[in-house]
Design goal:
Layout lengths: L1 H15 L9 H25 L2 H25 L6 H21 L5
């Protein structure tokens, strides 16, 4: 759990070293929300199937990162703009979900 927190902290601080905070851009806010949604779906599916919080957290992070990368690959194929910051914003959404939601989840008996 501490490692995930450190990764999120690293992502937030590196994104703030530019001209503006990454989530001030409307496009990045949408990517952030998509990361939360995909992370939630991945977490729910994995936890329901395996009953293991750690495994579900890993699935949620992998799902949100994958969604960000797949969206940028789609943009590349359709002539859109490919931005690494979009993947970062999507991953940040997944990380936020992955860290906070399990804290409030009841233990499975």
């Amino acid at each position: 759990m501490k490692q995930i927190f450190l990764i999120v902290l690293f992502m937030l601080t590196t994104s703030m070293s530019g001209q503006s905070f990454i989530l001030q851009e409307k496009d990045k806010q949408i990517h952030f929300a998509a990361g939360i949604a995909v992370g939630a779906l991945g977490y729910h599916w994995s936890y329901k199937k395996h009953g293991n919080k750690t495994r579900a957290q890993i699935t949620a992070m992998a799902a949100s990162i994958s969604a960000g990368i797949l969206k940028e690959l789609y943009d590349n194929r359709t002539g859109g703009t490919v931005e690494g910051r979009d993947v970062l914003a999507t991953s940040m959404g997944g990380a936020l979900f992955t860290i906070t939601i399990p804290l409030f989840q009841k233990k499975k008996k």
